[in-house]
Structures are given as C-alpha cells and as structure tokens.
C-alpha cells in the first residue's frame, strides 16, 4: 500500500515528517524532525499497513490521497514553535480539506492561584499517574525511576492531602518505584487498589482499602502474558510486561519497520481471548479485561472510600499524561468537581482543564501546593 498526504498553506519552511502507520485503529505519537511532532490514528480495512507520508503544515489544509483506498486517518501536526497546531483529516475515498486549531490548555503553574481559590473550604485529594508524570518516559520500562527530589515532593504532598498513585503498572511494581507507604496505590489501570500500608491518622477513613474487580481474569491474563512473551521473542526490542490484571507490550525500542509485526501479533493473540480487549498508550499496546473499569472508576472508588461520596467539599486533583488518564479527567468533568491536569509538552485533545509540560513542572506544582497549604495553616493559627 502506498500513498501520501499533503496539507499545505502559507507557513514558510514546510517540514517533512515520516509517518509509520502502525495498525488498524492504531494510535501514533512520535517526535518528528525540526522539533515538531505528530499524533494521530490510522485505520485500514486491509489489516495492517506501513506507509510513508510526507506532510506539510499550514493555515489551510488541502489533503489529497493518491492511493490507499481503504485508509482512514487523522494526523495532528505540532510545529516546533508557535501556539497553534493543525489537524489534517483524511477520509476513505475522498479528498478532504479540514484544519482545526487546538489551543494549549493553560498551565497549572500560571493558574495556580485560580486552582487554590477553587479549593477554598474543600479537602484536596491528589491523584497522580506514575510514568511520564512522576518519572520521565524511558526506553526500558524497568528503568523508569523517579528522582529522590520528586519522592520528597510526593511525600510532602501526602502529609497534607490524601494522595493516590494511579498507574497502568502492576501495583507491586509501581510501589517499588515510589517506595512511599503512606500513599494509596491503584495499579493495573485501577483494577488493583490498596490503601496506605503505613497508617496515617489524618487519612484513617480508608485504611485497609483493597479492591480487585477483575480477580477472575487472573488466570487468563497469565495465559495471554505467556503467549505474548513467546510470540515477541522473534521481534527485537519488544518487551512484554505482566501488570497482573493487564499485559503491556512495549514497542518503543522496536525498529519502526517491525511496528506492524508487533501490532499484528498482539491483535492475533488477543483475538483468541474474547474477554480481553486491546488498547494503545504511548508506544505500548495494552491487553486488559473487558470489564468496565478504568482510572476514572478507580478515582471514584477512592473518593468514596475516603468518605467523599456525593460530597461537595472535596477537590480531587488528577495529574496524568496518557490517554488512559482521560477516563479520570472525564469523571471530573462529569462531576463538575476537581482539577484535571494533563502532562504534555504539546497541546493535545483532552478533557483536562490545565496542563504541565513535564515531570519537573509536576514537582514544582506539588511543592507550591504544599507551601500554600503550610502557609494557610500557619495563617489560621495566628
Ligand atoms: Mg503515564
């Protein structure tokens, strides 16, 4: 299959990006040349496709397609500089001219005063994703360590606010990284929830919380993990991770030429397990139970466990960087309560209200929140 997309207009120095189509209904997110990046998803009716595309960006799109009649796609281009970015749409069988500007969400640091003002008379509860939020994204998922300074910031936050780590990782593994016994941990995308191992009088309400809504899937997850490990041996760089209630297949270190093979293999294996479903995160395929449980449900469960069910005097603050965190951002929007903060260097479509660029800014935000809380307590004592 071959073809190209071209979206062009009056912006000088058009740049070229190489876009590899990963899989049917696949999500793509990569750094491009000249500091630009692109994101998107591609679907094909012909199973897998790997295709080279040259993309130009501009104020108006004129998207045309020379071939690939069964391709549907949208691709978002993020220029290296400038406040706007573009989306070029491409629909099956048609030429499409469609461009949409997406404005970056305001920084949670620059809007800090607004955020703390919203917490007046309310109890802040912190929810933190791990990878890409507290730790940098690295090639080897086993080496995604958080810094000691970040650990100190999270520990300080937990002294003032009930704090939970909500991760796609296995709960034990994320605990090994974070090493803070005073936190709540929701592993496997919220399917494995445990309260603080170290009792805290301030957060005593949820002591002993333990919830595993997908326990019956454990043998099936074991089986799919073994099958995927066996299958991925032939693809250099692919890494299969057993996250207890879900399995991750990382392809960050796989040669681009083999991304299609990774996707095809994972899809073929998952088809044998109709009670499991496949989703995709940042350079990772995730296999998990079909039950309706996600990070958003975990957030609600923890709020209920903390005694904040149907309460108006709580302000949940959720910080995360991945598509799986969107479920939590949506819950906050639906409740009309709380602050969703997306961690991303680039603007993205998101249900979060604010953004932070990277883990270093997450740490700065946590420390400012702690300092604000400390000062407001001191003022109360005067
Ligand atoms: Mg993450």
UniProtKB/TrEMBL annotation:
InterPro entries: HAD-like_sf (IPR036412), HAD-SF_hydro_IIB (IPR006379), HAD_sf (IPR023214), OTSB-like (IPR044651), Trehalose_PPase (IPR003337)
Biological pathway: Glycan biosynthesis; trehalose biosynthesis
Keywords, in A-Z order: Hydrolase, Stress response
Reported cofactor(s): a divalent metal cation
GO BP annotations listed: trehalose biosynthetic process
Enzyme class: hydrolase
Keyword Transmembrane (UniProt): no
Gene3D superfamilies: HAD superfamily/HAD-like (3.40.50.1000)
Pfam family, one: Trehalose_PPase
EC number(s) on file: 3.1.3.12
GO molecular function: trehalose-phosphatase activity
Taxonomic superkingdom: Eukaryota
Reaction equations catalysed: alpha,alpha-trehalose 6-phosphate + H2O = alpha,alpha-trehalose + phosphate
PANTHER family to which the protein is assigned, alphabetical: TREHALOSE 6-PHOSPHATE PHOSPHATASE (PTHR43768)
Record-stated family: Belongs to the trehalose phosphatase family.
Function text: Removes the phosphate from trehalose 6-phosphate to produce free trehalose. Trehalose accumulation in plant may improve abiotic stress tolerance.
Name used for this protein in its record: Trehalose 6-phosphate phosphatase
Annotated source species: Oryza meyeriana var. granulata
């Amino acid at each position: 299959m071959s073809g190209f997309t071209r979206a062009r207009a009056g912006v000088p120095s058009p740049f070229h990006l190489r876009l590899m189509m990963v899989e049917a209904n696949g999500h793509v997110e990569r750094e491009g040349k000249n500091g630009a990046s692109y994101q998107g998803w591609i679907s094909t009716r012909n199973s897998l496709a790997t295709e080279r595309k040259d993309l130009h960006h501009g104020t108006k799109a004129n998207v045309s397609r020379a071939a690939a009649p069964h391709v549907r796609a949208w691709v978002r281009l993020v220029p290296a500089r400038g406040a706007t970015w573009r989306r070029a749409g491409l629909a099956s069988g048609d030429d499409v001219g469609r461009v949409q500007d997406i404005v970056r969400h305001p920084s949670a640091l620059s809007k800090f005063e607004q955020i703390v003002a919203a917490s007046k008379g309310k109890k802040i509860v912190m929810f933190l994703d791990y990878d890409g939020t507290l730790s940098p994204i690295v090639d080897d998922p086993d080496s995604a360590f958080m810094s000691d300074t970040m650990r100190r910031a999270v520990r300080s936050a937990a002294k003032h606010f009930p704090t939970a780590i909500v991760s796609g990782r296995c709960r034990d593994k994320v605990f090994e990284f974070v090493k803070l016994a005073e936190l709540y941990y929701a592993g496997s995308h919220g399917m494995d929830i445990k309260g603080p191992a170290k009792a805290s009088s301030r957060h005593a309400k949820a002591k002993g919380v333990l919830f595993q809504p997908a326990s019956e899937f454990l043998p099936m997850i074991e089986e799919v993990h073994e099958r995927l490990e066996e299958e991925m041996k032939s693809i250099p760089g692919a890494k299969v991770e057993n996250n207890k209630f879900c399995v991750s297949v990382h392809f960050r270190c796989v040669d681009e030429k083999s991304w299609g093979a990774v996707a095809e293999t994972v899809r073929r294996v998952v088809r044998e397990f109709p009670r499991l479903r496949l989703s995709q995160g940042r350079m990772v395929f995730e296999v998990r139970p079909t039950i309706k449980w996600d990070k958003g449900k975990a957030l609600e469960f923890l709020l209920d466990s903390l005694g904040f069910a149907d309460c108006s005097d709580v302000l949940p603050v959720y910080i995360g960087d991945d598509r799986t965190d969107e479920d939590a951002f949506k819950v906050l929007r639906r409740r009309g309560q709380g602050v969703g903060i997306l961690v991303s260097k680039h603007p993205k479509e998101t249900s979060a209200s604010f953004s932070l660029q990277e883990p270093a800014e997450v740490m700065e935000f946590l420390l400012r929140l702690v300092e604000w809380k400390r000062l407001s307590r001191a003022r109360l004592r005067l």
